[in-house]
Design a protein that fits this description.
The chain has 740 residues and is of the alpha+beta class. Among the domains are: 43-129, 2-Layer Sandwich (Penicillin-binding protein 1b fold); 687-739, no CATH class. Helix content is 38%, strand content 18%.
Length: 740
């Protein structure tokens, strides 16, 4: 009887071990070869004449984790000397070709690059390697950079064994002597300084088990460790551990592996870490929260120094290296938000762009390399502008701290490439992406569609529209009596002034004279989205749209009449560097070029004379429009120059009133964003056809006798002249008259 029970139990244990063997072996085998897609930003291009100072380039190098080194001994270093910046560039596989590590010298003339040279002579163009901004790993929230054995520094491999598992190369997955030694050390010190688990057991806990501390779980852990040790080489297990171990948490983002840990804590590749930095990462293993160098720097420093002393005692570093390392500060980045480059809001856009081309399994396992449109300088400039101005507005208006939220998107006017995307005031934390997903009433941002439709029907900017009280009574529903923001009526006035001052009554009069269905159809054509609002209130922006969709709308105006679908991905390459897919910009002409130019000029007048005139850039050759929804719930601004189109939204997540107009909220954010750029003024192809007219009346005038603006016209002689202004025909008009 006892023999039968024993046999039955033995068979049960054997069966369980066989099941365990197959389960963990297949899981480990599959997971260790799953290489997530790496996502890259746009590289910074350096060329002769580029507007970039030595200070600004040094800042960009620091952003990429380059360090100042007088010896310029290894890639990832730079130094300044006699007005030039010498850089030892890292190697990188770009989309077109690979670039080896090389030394270059960048010479400056004030705020511009004068010359770039290397050992072979002058270089017309060279790029810094792009920053990694994210990856696609299968487990939710986990992020990491996968390393191969040859990419792991020797000191890290030996140091891990020295600190965490001295018998790693000898034991069979667990170590009785290790458990006893850890127990003795902890008893002597009065605190937990060593753990009894082997590296293999820690790997098992990370891969397969939860955090319960029971005898059954510990036995299961040991059994799994023995199986892994029997099935896989020590190098495989150590590499898996280095790629898997948990090293911290930032919001919803879990930092796994030493590759990403090096970027997160030190903002540079693992291969460039010094002995003290490697010791810091190893110190975090024991308790990523308890030994966090961000929250508990003294605690982390003390443990790092103990590890460095162990390194020296075991002969892993010299006495001189020990003294040098102990003298170093922790050296981590300023905080978790500044470690590496992680832009979750933009990554949402990348995922959306890739969704139609790749399964999640492809992105999480095939080692793809995704090259994107984001420019880190622009992204961080925009994020800082949002955070700074929102705090400033809350202080100025005595609003609750963090009560306001915002979104901002910046794109190239010709290609639709998204250069920056801000989803909220906390840029490095995953959360609700307002730039993509917050559909809010757009207010007066929609009005240019009404005026464009009028222009396309033959009206000029100086033609008149009437701003007077009106009541619309639909066949079904309540009557509607719109009002201007200030409650006044302005009578007859030119179109450009009605748009510049964002007059509601004039806009509704104009839109209804054209036909509401025509305006709805034009909006649908410009945005590839049918409007939801079937009522005349659509003319004043009672239509919920996202900042991304508004970017698409204003992209039509900024590009000279072409709808370019905003995009975040340029190309995807396989691990061998061959293109898997290319994502060219989509181009569709939606507006005749002369009509687009006329509307752009009208939006320049909005900035110079209208609701955008408070901006310090109002006269700098930019076009834009403010927008405010009912009860001041949403503050909008959309603007563009010759290179960039930007949309900004400011409001509250609970949809409560903010007290902000487009000019007092979103425009202020845009001003701050624009402060970080050099404006590329709009260029008028037919500037000789611009006519000086009075802003108030639209009559021909001169600067000496009226407040004038320039508007494009086909027949100057058809315009009345302001009384008191003696307008002589131009030479062009005289010559033209000879042949009429």
């Amino acid at each position: 009887m006892a023999l039968g029970i024993g046999l039955f139990v033995g068979l049960g244990i054997l069966g369980y071990l066989i099941y365990l063997d197959r389960s963990i072996t297949s899981t480990f085998e599959g997971r260790r070869w799953s290489v997530p897609a790496q996502v890259y930003a746009q590289p910074l291009e350096l060329h002769t004449g580029a507007q970039l100072s030595s200070w600004a380039l040094t800042r960009e190098l620091s952003r990429l984790g380059y360090r100042n080194d007088a010896n310029l001994a290894t890639p990832g270093t730079f130094k300044t000397r006699d007005g030039e910046l010498q850089i030892f560039l890292r190697p990188f596989q770009f989309m077109e070709r690979a670039r080896s590590a090389q030394r270059i010298s960048v010479h400056f003339a004030g705020t511009h690059i004068r010359q770039i040279t290397n050992s072979n002579g002058e270089l017309p163009l060279i790029r810094l390697e792009p920053a990694i901004i994210g990856s696609f790993f299968p487990s939710h929230g986990e992020d990491r950079l996968i390393l191969t054995p040859d990419q792991v520094p020797s000191l890290l491999s030996k140091g891990l064994k020295s600190i965490e598992d001295r018998n790693f190369d000898k034991h069979i997955g667990f170590s009785v002597t290790g458990i006893l030694r850890a127990l003795w050390v902890n008893l002597r010190s009065g605190e937990r300084q060593q753990g009894g688990s082997t590296l293999t057991q820690q790997l098992v806990k990370s891969y397969f088990l939860d955090n319960r501390r029971t005898i059954e779980r510990k036995l299961q852990e040991v059994a799994m460790a023995v199986i892994l040790d029997a099935r896989f080489s020590k190098e495989d297990l150590l590499t898996a551990y280095i790629n898997e171990i948990f090293l911290g948490q930032h919001g919803n983002r879990a930092i796994h592996g030493f590759g990403l840990g090096a970027q997160f804590y030190f903002n540079k590749p693992l291969a460039e870490l010094q002995a003290d930095e490697i010791a810091t990462l190893i110190s975090i293993i024991r308790g990523p929260s308890y030994y966090s160098p961000f929250r508990h720097p003294n605690r982390a420093l003390e443990r790092r120094n103990r590890i460095l002393n162990t390194f020296a005692r075991d002969g892993l570093i010299s006495g001189q290296a020990l003294a040098t390392s102990l003298a170093q500060p922790l050296g981590v980045v300023d905080g978790p938000s500044s470690g590496g480059a992680y832009y979750p809001a933009f990554m949402d856009m990348v995922r959306a762009d890739l969704r139609d081309f790749y399964d999640q399994s492809d992105l999480s396992s095939k080692g793809l390399r995704v090259f994107t449109t984001i420019k880190p300088r622009d992204q961080e400039n925009a994020q800082q502008a949002v955070s700074h101005i929102l705090s400033q507005i809350e202080t100025d208006r005595r609003l609750s701290n963090n009560s306001l939220q915002a979104a901002a998107i910046i794109a190239d006017t010709q290609t639709g490439d998204i250069q920056a995307l801000v989803g909220g005031r906390q840029g490095r934390i995953d959360g609700f992406n307002r730039a993509l997903n917050a559909e809010r009433p757009v207010g007066s941002l929609i009005k240019p569609v009404v005026y464009l439709t009028a222009i396309e029907r033959g009206m000029s900017l100086a033609d008149s529209v009437v701003d007077e009280p009106m009541t619309l009574t639909p066949q079904f529903g309540e009557s509607w009596s719109p009002k201007n923001f200030d409650g006044k009526f302005y009578g007859e006035l030119p179109l450009f002034r009605a748009l510049a001052q964002s007059l509601n009554l004039a806009t509704v009069q104009l839109g209804m004279s054209i036909g509401l269905e025509q305006i709805q159809s034009r909006l649908a054509n410009l945005t590839a989205r049918e409007p939801k609002n079937p009522y005349p209130s659509l003319l004043l922006g009672a239509e919920p749209l996202s900042p991304l969709k508004m970017l698409e709308l204003y992209g039509n105006f900024a590009s000279g009449g072409f709808r370019t679908h905003p995009k975040a991905v340029i190309a995807v390459l396989n691990p061998e560097g061959r293109p898997v897919s290319h994502h060219p910009f989509e181009l569709e002409q939606t507006i005749a070029p002369d009509h687009a130019a006329t509307l752009a000029r009208a939006l320049e007048i909005v900035m110079a004379k209208g609701t955008g005139r408070s901006s310090p850039y109002a006269q700098a050759g930019v076009a834009g429009k403010t927008g405010t929804s009912n009860d001041n719930r949403d503050s909008w601004f959309a603007g563009f120059d010759n290179s960039r189109v930007t949309v900004v939204w400011v409001g509250r997540d609970d949809n409560e009133p903010t007290g902000l107009t487009g000019g007092s909220g979103a425009l202020r954010v845009w001003n701050e964003i624009t402060h970080g750029y050099t404006i590329d003024p709009l260029v008028h192809a037919h500037s000789d056809e611009l006519l000086e007219v009075e802003f108030e009346t639209g009559l021909r005038a001169r600067k000496t006798c009226a407040d004038v603006v320039l508007v494009p016209v086909a027949s100057p002689q058809n315009f009345g002249i302001k009384p008191g202004c003696n307008i002589r025909p131009s030479i062009r008009d005289r010559v033209k008259g000879w042949f009429d």
